[in-house]
């Protein structure tokens, strides 16, 4: 499956970021353009969005794995525009607050899990993003950890990360190879794709079938999830203009699992970085807790209405996103037509990659970029600056439409954990701290390697606040 993995090694992040703001590579007949600076990203993907922003490369392996339905990976056209309209309606900044109750309930479940089995914190933070998404999308109220729907999505999405980098599947270079039989020598990529396709079909169909069954049995209603209203609309004619795109999308594409791809891995990785960073940098944790204690206190849990009152928590969230980007190399684009950049010819179909890691660690934009320092997001007057690290979610028309939802979930999880729990490095039997390597794995979608840490309530009152809140939700 990794016939051209040497190419991935050549395109190491550190080498790329030091060679220039725009680089060109050629692998056989494929042209690959790498954007290493935020300015280059803006120039290509926003100022020239009509050429670079909308389309994706035609990757045969994506269709073979069953991901062709996904708006994040779909090539430009009427289907993609229909999908995008639906998600714009659902996840506009002004409508994200509709999901506050769902997010709060799942975050409280997450806190209860940390109280009950703190040693299993990795499973808890890996479950939270999927649990929030499954509840918002399908009205599924899953387990605090090891939920069947979440594990199914995780298994399907994890395989996707192996094939998104250029050069990782020969079939993308030679699409005719998709027709060779699975027993043929060198056809491991096809067996991998067929196994992945089965997982993707289950991820798409099982949760949606669950919504339909609940609606038929009367145990679900339109307000439970954003899938329900579209399924209801399918049964009534004529469809309202506002729901037409969404109803058609659900009816013909069954793509509500689109959101799991972006938000699931984004927040799973972000929360892993959060726990490791808080254990590694106790001074930052103490400063964040001091802000919460001073402004909110300990008589209730932090909620979304407190967000504007906690600037250091917001700065901390931004720094986590910058310090260890989830997608060090953003999802590929494709040039929609021939173009010329600074005298250099860029042919139609060229693959465009934006180097998120280089942008996030640009020493000109971020002083001492390898250090973990939330204070970098404050102006001299003490107010937050305008840098929201938006490039971590992409550029132009392909920017993640669910980013406001994902940010809200991550913010609430971080704020409530900091308010009520202490995260420290674990100690061995001799009392010595066990170091955290800080190493990351994954192919395109990065995540921190499992590590050990100690998680304890800050006080008996903090523990009781969590339990009381859970009891009354």
Automatic annotation (TrEMBL):
The cofactor named in the record is: heme
Q: Name one Pfam family in it.
A: p450
What InterPro entries does UniProt report for this protein, alphabetically?
A: Cyt_P450, Cyt_P450_CS, Cyt_P450_E_grp-I, Cyt_P450_sf, Cytochrome_P450_fung
Signal peptide start-end: none
Q: In which pathway does it act?
A: Secondary metabolite biosynthesis
The UniProt record gives the binding positions of heme as 400
From the UniProt record, which GO molecular function terms apply?
Answer: heme binding; iron ion binding; monooxygenase activity; oxidoreductase activity, acting on paired donors, with incorporation or reduction of molecular oxygen
UniProt keyword annotations, A-Z: Heme, Iron, Metal-binding, Monooxygenase, Oxidoreductase
Q: Which family does it belong to?
A: Belongs to the cytochrome P450 family.
Protein name, entry field: Cytochrome P450
């Amino acid at each position: 499956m990794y016939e051209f993995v040497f190419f991935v090694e050549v395109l190491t992040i550190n080498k790329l970021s030091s060679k220039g703001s725009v680089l060109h590579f050629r692998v056989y007949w494929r042209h690959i353009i790498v954007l290493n600076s935020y300015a280059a990203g803006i120039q290509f993907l926003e100022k020239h969005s009509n050429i670079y922003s909308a389309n994706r490369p035609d990757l045969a392996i994506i269709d073979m794995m069953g991901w062709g339905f996904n708006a994040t990976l779909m090539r430009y056209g009427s289907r993609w525009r229909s999908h995008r309209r639906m998600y714009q309606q659902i996840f506009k900044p002004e409508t994200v607050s509709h999901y506050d109750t769902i997010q709060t309930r799942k975050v409280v479940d997450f806190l209860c899990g940390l109280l009950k089995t703190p040693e299993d914190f990795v499973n808890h933070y890996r479950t939270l993003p999927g649990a929030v998404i499954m509840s918002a999308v399908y009205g599924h109220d899953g387990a605090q950890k090891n939920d069947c729907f979440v594990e199914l999505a995780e298994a399907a999405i994890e395989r996707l990360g192996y094939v998104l980098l250029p050069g990782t599947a020969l079939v993308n270079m030679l699409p005719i190879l998709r027709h060779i039989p699975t027993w043929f020598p060198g056809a491991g990529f096809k067996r991998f794709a067929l196994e992945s396709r089965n997982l993707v079909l289950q991820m798409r169909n099982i949760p949606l079938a669950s919504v339909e069954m609940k609606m038929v049995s009367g145990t679900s209603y339109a307000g439970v999830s954003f899938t329900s209203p579209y399924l209801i609309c399918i049964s009534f004619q004529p469809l309202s203009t506002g729901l037409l795109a969404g109803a058609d999308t659900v009816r013909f594409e069954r793509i509500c699992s689109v959101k799991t791809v972006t938000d699931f891995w984004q927040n799973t990785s972000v929360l892993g970085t959060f726990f490791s960073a808080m254990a590694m940098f106790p001074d930052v944790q103490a400063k964040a807790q001091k802000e919460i204690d001073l402004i909110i206190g300990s008589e209730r849990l932090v909620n979304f209405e407190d967000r504007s009152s906690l600037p250091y928590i917001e700065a901390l969230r931004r720094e986590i996103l910058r310090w260890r980007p989830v997608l060090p190399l953003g999802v590929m684009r494709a040039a929609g037509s021939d173009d010329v950049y600074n005298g250099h010819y860029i042919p139609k179909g060229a693959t465009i990659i934006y180097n998120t890691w280089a942008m996030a660690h640009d020493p000109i934009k971020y002083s001492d970029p390898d250090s973990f320092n939330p204070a970098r997001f404050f102006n001299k007057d003490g107010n937050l600056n305008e840098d929201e690290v938006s490039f971590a979610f992409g550029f132009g028309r392909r920017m993640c439409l669910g980013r406001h939802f994902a940010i809200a979930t991550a913010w609430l999880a971080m704020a409530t954990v900091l308010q009520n729990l202490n995260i420290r490095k674990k100690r061995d039997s001799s009392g010595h701290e066990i170091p955290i390597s800080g190493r990351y794995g994954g192919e395109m979608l990065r995540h921190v390697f499992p590590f050990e840490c100690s998680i304890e309530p800050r006080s008996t009152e903090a523990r009781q606040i969590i339990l009381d809140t859970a009891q009354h939700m």
